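User: Fold this; tokens only.

Assistant: Input:
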Amino acid sequence: MATATRTPQRRSAPRAKVYLPLTLARAEGHGEPVAARTVDLSTGGARVVCERPLKVDELLRFDLDCTGGEHVCGECRVLREHVGRTYAVRFERLDDEGATGALARLTHA
């Protein structure tokens, strides 16, 4: 008899398919900003597709262009690379105290 097993959810926040423009810049100020877009988003991170390659474990500045002219900015870390210049990033620090609320609204819209 087969028994179904559940894979535990490791994410602390649920993700939603949200497609928004995002600009990434190397935290130490080297190189040109990298244009990207989100594929999915949560209050703790995102999956992004970008024009140029990123390094795993790299710390980046980000500027997420939300709806209605609102921006969420801060620092993120590249966790892993997926296929086709798609990356998982974790938000390490948000510049504004209201940013978590803005991200929550976007993921529940």
